[in-house]
Amino acid sequence: MPPRWPRKPDRNDPAYRRLDDRMNFAIHVAIFGACNSGLWFFHNLQNATWPWATWVTGGWALVLATHALYIFTLADYSNPVAESANTSAGLGFQPKTKEKSKKTT
Questions:
Q1: For residue range 25-79, what is the model confidence (pLDDT) as tens digits?
Q2: Helices and strands, counts by H and E, the chain
Q3: Could you give the CA distance from residue 88 to residue 83 in angstroms, rounded to a whole number?
């Protein structure tokens, strides 16, 4: 069952940002596991000598460990995120209104 948020999601809420970052990390771990298990499955199935497979797994594991270090120790959720000028008005992708040109006759 997916996690439920008890109030309206807001990126200015530190608890929401923490949960969002941890869910993104969980997705990162799942993709890492799926891709690397497939890589090593075919590596062993074909008795292949792929020297790059170790580098791919090791490099990705290093990136994953760095991501975990940031999420669980370095991330500061106390300050709210500054909103951009386009989203602060809440208009999103509204079409621009055309101003009528004044013709002088």
A1: 999 999 999 999 999 999 999 998 889 999 999 999 999 999 999 999 998 888 6
A2: 3, 0
A3: 6
SS3 74: helix
Tokens 């621009």 locate to: 96
The tokens describing 86, both together, are: 């386009």
Closest CA to 28 of 74, 66, 75, 55: 66
Instruction: Enter the pTM of the model.
Output: 0.68
Query: Is residue 71 classed exposed, middle or buried when 0-12, 13-18 and 19+ CB atoms within 10 A define those classes?
Result: middle
Rounded Cα gap, residues 19 and 82, in angstroms: 18
Higher-pLDDT residue of 54, 85: 54
Q: Which two tokens stand for residue 31?
A: 């993709």
Of 18, 34, 2, 14, give the one whose Cα is nearest residue 70.
18
